[in-house]
Amino acid sequence: MGKTTNSCLPTSVKIVEVGPRDGLQNEPKTVPTSTKVELINRLSESGLTAIEVTSFVSPKWVPQMSDHSEVLQKIKRWPGVTYSALTPNMKGFQGAVQAGAQEVAIFGAASESFSRKNINCSIQESLQRFEEVVGAAKGHNMRVRGYVSCVLGCPYEGNIDPAKVAEVSKKMFDMGCYEISLGDTIGVGTPGEMVTMLNTVTAHVPVQHLAVHCHDTYGQALANIYAALQLGVCVVDSSIAGLGGCPYAKGASGNVATEDVVYMMDGLGIKTGVNLQKLIEAGKFISRELSRQNNSKVAQARTSKL
């Protein structure tokens, strides 16, 4: 991949929009299926090429995602856009395939305690479970993305050893995940910690197969993303209007807002292919539908000028 005039930065970055899944999964009130479909259609129109649509988990654990199949089947499919779903096990994978997901994701953790709280099993048990999903995906010619949670801190264990992050990431990569998304699930990391962690992980997984997934709990998300870009990371997860959190990570505020990430990329001369104004409109739409404040600083600034 080429570089910008700043030789440390990539010329283009892929934005993975996680708002419809990671953003909405923790909303206290049920979001109508029609609202989810409209949001995804608006995001598709903005020029995004990767949208995580929903999650095939048990409605008992995440009731907000219980309409997963209906959402996938009702959205308008745009050429060049990959529509993915989170699938923690074979039952979820089979449901995602039947509903027309083009890609699936599995999610593990670098923290033993978080793994047990989040998916009710140890890290090792989760990896064994994922092997079956990855194997089945290969049989369907589907790509699998791997998430590693708590890479810069855990609500139960505190600091996380970067070597543990590298170990879990490498196992997922060796298993067949084409991309590993490294998540600062509770948003406690700082750029120096991001650099240390990435330097450790990239000794085991090529940087072109890594993504960062930053929450903005402590206001560090954009700084952490910039630090990752300087080390060669070219894929960034974000959520429209800064929606989200984690139902199993108490106190974790939303993901970094997609609008804010794209604004920064535009300012750095890094291509994303995304239309910022259309993103802002999509963020205003979902914030209005949820009757909540839009957490994108860019959207707030642009709206205040009107």
Question: What's this, in brief?
Answer:
This protein is α/β, with parallel strands linked by helices and 306 residues long.
Number of strands: 8
pLDDT averaged residue by residue? 93
Order of neighbouring strands in the sheet with most strands: 1-2-3-4-5-6-7-8
Order of helices and strands: EHHEHEHEHHEHEHEHEHHH
State the main characteristics.
8-stranded parallel β-barrel; 306 residues; disordered N terminus; globular; alpha/beta
Task: Explain what the structure shows.
This protein is an alpha/beta fold. 42% of the residues lie in helices and 14% in strands. The protein is built from 12 helices and 8 strands. It has an 8-stranded parallel β-barrel with strand order 1-2-3-4-5-6-7-8, surrounded by 8 helices. Helix 6 (123-139) packs parallel to helix 7 (162-175) and helix 7 crosses helix 8. It is globular, with a radius of gyration of 18 Å. It starts with 13 loop residues before the first strand and ends with a helix.
Q: Topology of this protein?
A:
Layout: E1 14-17, H1 19-23, H2 33-45, E2 50-55, H3 68-74, E3 82-86, H4 90-99, E4 103-109, H5 112-119, H6 123-139, E5 143-149, H7 162-175, E6 179-184, H8 191-201, E7 210-214, H9 221-230, E8 235-238, H10 258-268, H11 276-290, H12 297-305
Parallel strand pairs: 1-2, 1-8, 2-3, 3-4, 4-5, 5-6, 6-7, 7-8
Helix pairs in contact: 2-3, 2-11, 3-4, 6-7, 7-8, 8-9, 10-11
